[in-house]
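Ticket #504: bound-state structure for iron/sulfur cluster.
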Amino acid sequence: MRERNYDVVIVGSGAGGGTVAKELAPLCREGARIAVLEWGAKLTEEEFACPPEGRELAMARKLYFESGGVFNAERTMTMAFGRAYGGSTVVYTGTSLIIPERTVARWAVPGLVSEDLARRSRKVMQENNVHFLEEEALNDNNRLFRDACERLGYRVEQFPINVKGCRGAGLCNLGCPNAAKQGTNRVQLPAAERQGVEVVTNCKVLRIAEGEVLARVANPPWGLPSAWEEGEVRVKARIIVVAAGAVNSPALLLRSHLPVRLPALGRYFTAHPALILVGEHERPISNYFGHPKSFYCDHFAESHGFLLETCMYFPFTTAKNLVGFGPEHSELMRRMDRLQMILVLAVDPALPDNRVTIDASGEPVVHYRFTEGVLDSLLESMKASARIFFAAGARRIHAPAGERFFIEAHEAPRLDALITRRRLLPGRISIASAHLMGGCRMGDDPDTSVTDAWGQVHGLPWLYVADGSLFPRCSEINPYVTIMALADRVAERVRSRLVEGKAA
Ligand SMILES: Cc1cc2nc3c(=O)[nH]c(=O)nc-3n(C[C@H](O)[C@H](O)[C@H](O)COP(=O)(O)OP(=O)(O)OC[C@H]3O[C@@H](n4cnc5c(N)ncnc54)[C@H](O)[C@@H]3O)c2cc1C
Ligand code: SF4
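RESOLUTION: The complex was predicted; output attached.
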């Protein structure tokens, strides 16, 4: 088997891995050898700019694990996460928020303080060109949401987003065709490569052990070929940083049979379970042109455990999120240009039994059950969304737990009778997640956590984790900035370990 030698190997090139690569890159000048091993491919600009026909399914296949529809073991939720040079940052929408102080307090990780995360978050946001879009750049879908929330007295805020030269194509979740969205594929990885970090794509890490990574290179029929030859390769590394995401990092650690006891590994997985709600207007509104996500409403976060965000999804995703089939479904889909959409995110608790395990071949299996509290939050979120749609002037709405496919505007006073808990059955309604968190949670107790507050796996000074799996509980907001801030901390610790090692 071929062999290669590095000081640091980073597994995964998404929000966490890309940030660690960029932060460690200056060490290359002093002779450090650093490689990022990424399972996914690097797409060409031509592939990102491919014509819109058939784009949704073709791009989903190239950029996501299982085209964005990985099921939990119970088959009640689909999870979307990226597999590409840049990981999920290639497909994220780019909303960029700093984690609230109250959430960091609830995380209660000794040694992790809110000011430190906020400082690092601000640095990341500057790098990623985070700013507010001008009023003229907002589309009707977004403005209707904001104005209706204000009318109802619901607190509503504009999302800062991380674009540069956004042309409002609305295709952010299929990889931006205009190179406008600032993910690690545009910012951190190119910066790291310019300084000497090697990023090896189409390279799946199979197992890790002290001093060694076993990987396999295989080129898919899209993107650029890997820098390395196809086949298995043994990579020697003094330090390994695992940043394969909240599903794949715990799975990689589990199948590597590490020589330490880690009872919390894979556990406390959270997902911000999400629903898409749709309101239909009399006339066409601008929805799928323009940046899809400009506002959020956290009015109900503390009282009812949910957030509301503007969104606009593509036809396949929208169709799969409507409950039911037949004439009413097709009638609504044919009115795509009149649809207003809201994404609901539930704030879910971190429970030991919601967890990542591995199957006989070492691949991840996510066990996730909704608590009664989460189902209650989803129910209330549907009613709040319905009130927003009607306040925005929608003629009728579709709610996944509706007693009927459509609820008409004149029925608005009867929402409690028309959106009901008995219809909110996991498996019947389409619940999805794009915020995957936990599984290698930080903490100081090896019985209930996997790493310390700097991402070092308990008992293994050569092994670090630097991605969304570090979250001890959910982030209660869109998570990528916090992942980058945590990865920045991990890089700082790895850097000092490397320097210490040199001096010793
Ligand atoms: C559609 C969508 C929209 C989103 N929008 C937003 C948003 O607007 N704002 C926000 O804050 N967050 C958003 N998110 C969430 C955000 O993108 C993720 O939370 C974040 O990117 C996760 O970072 P990560 O480093 O944990 O994992 P990822 O970014 O997913 O990176 C993990 C990488 O590891 C690679 N990998 C996995 N296993 C292996 C292996 N064995 N060997 C080698 N490589 C491996 C994967 O291919 C992947 O590239 C969105 C997510 C999605 C899917
Ligand atoms: S709206 Fe269009 S141009 Fe702007 S970031 Fe999204 S995909 Fe790119």
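RESOLUTION NOTES: The CA atoms of residues 323 and 428 lie 8 Å apart.
TICKET STATUS: resolved
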